[in-house]
Amino acid sequence: MVRRPSVVFQPARLLDGINLIADAVKPTLGPLPRFVGIEGTMRDRPPEVLDDAATIARRIIQIAHPTADVGAMMMRHALWRMHETCGDGSATTAVIAQAILQQATKAIAAGAHPAMVRRGIEHGVAQATAALRASAIRPTSGRHGRELLMALAQTVCHDAEMRDVLVEIVGIIGADGAIHVVNNDARRIDREYIEGAMWDSPWLTTGFATDAAQSVARISDAAVVLLDGKLDSAMNVLEGLRRLYSFGHRNLLIVAGDLSDEAKAVLIQARLSGTLSILPVKAPGFDAKRAVALQDLATLTGARVLFGDGASFARLTAEDVGGVRRAWATARQFGIIGGRRDPLALRNGIAAVRKKIDETTNLDEIAELRARLGRLCGGLAIVRVGAVTSKVQEQRRDQATRLARTLQMAAGRGYLAGGGAALFRVGEALLNEAASDIRSDGSARDVAIGVRCVAHALASPLMTIAANAGFDATEVAGRVRSALHKRPQSNCGFDARSGDVVDVLAAGIVDSAEVVARAVHTAGSLAAIAITTDAVIHHRKPALSTNP
Description:
This protein is α/β, with parallel strands linked by helices. It has 19 helices and 18 strands.
């Protein structure tokens, strides 16, 4: 018997799944959040108590109703995407998406066309994100910049030790430096700064170690040769070394795809004779990734990439050779410090990588591009996270990674009035703009309804924060609205810790501008897709056969 998939038209239960996830993560929003407990999947494991919206959503594997489960997984994917790209903002995304959908479904039930409402949502989201980015407070250096970073860290993270360490790191290496979070054997959080750039690629042989006890090879004031191929014959290697010697180079860093046994023997003999000091390391990556890594090395060192086998090494010219102040390698990694780089080429390279980060949606590619950007900018920090148990250590490591992303994004793109204040103010402006169009007829009216759905939804984060802190959300929203009417250009918002309407920036309540803008965009995209999904297809699982 052929099993046919079942089709559900006008799937109202889709919104039930989205609401379920949103309701599960809403308690985590704000400076006084309530935690969410999750039952352990194994009997011998205790329940988890979490305050991270994306992790909570990810723990929800499946819900009973299949159509609602589709909606829940749509929300789950959106929140995890915010988690991976921004580190923060998942709860804000869930709250805004739910609020837009609640407004939009009422309008559609009253006769509005879903496609026109979707167009209005997309238009409203575009206006809101543009306004948020335009009103961002640009990052500054010095004491004021550090104060803004600390204020943001206090909003995002409740771990004081972690806050202090990561604020210090971001303050030193900036928005584009690379931050690696690893485990620490001790229970504390340690940090280490590494100047220059580092790749996860080893030396090509142990015969060049300068410190056998620590298994590391170091070289100073070295010429750099980059080869996208294999150093093969002894004759090619000898000719290349002769040319380098004639150019006046005595210390050599050779980055190549591989070494033949003949080439290895020649290099070791040259080193043992005292004629040359040589450090051969393996070119990072494979194929296209290797080409990119070598191009980054060329940008940092001023060398040219040689293609082919050892014959190109034998024909190298003085213009093919770059330089570094120091280089080192181990059985796992190698790094360079103080490359002889061309400032213009470096600026162009950094700008190109930043552009790719903005244009790329694949999370793995974004992570690789950020690592490239950190190398080109010359800053690397290693954060070693420890804890009492392995489970707590895993949670702290994940929290450190998220906090680092959020702080670096703010350090690069700027800050907004926090606590939902900036969103509330943009929503009020958008609501006033949509008021005139709402009285029109036909599709223009439905588009205006979509814009109004977004405008109303932008108040939901502030109201949720107030409700989580034990206040009447509607009454708080009214107080903030009255304050904004009196002072339209102010940063009035609600301080959940004191219960007062204050200037939130002066009170140290800030958000990352880019995180908030992306939260609005992600929420709007989810809502737009949900209201125009007219059918859900379920594939029936085949029954287990009882035949042998």
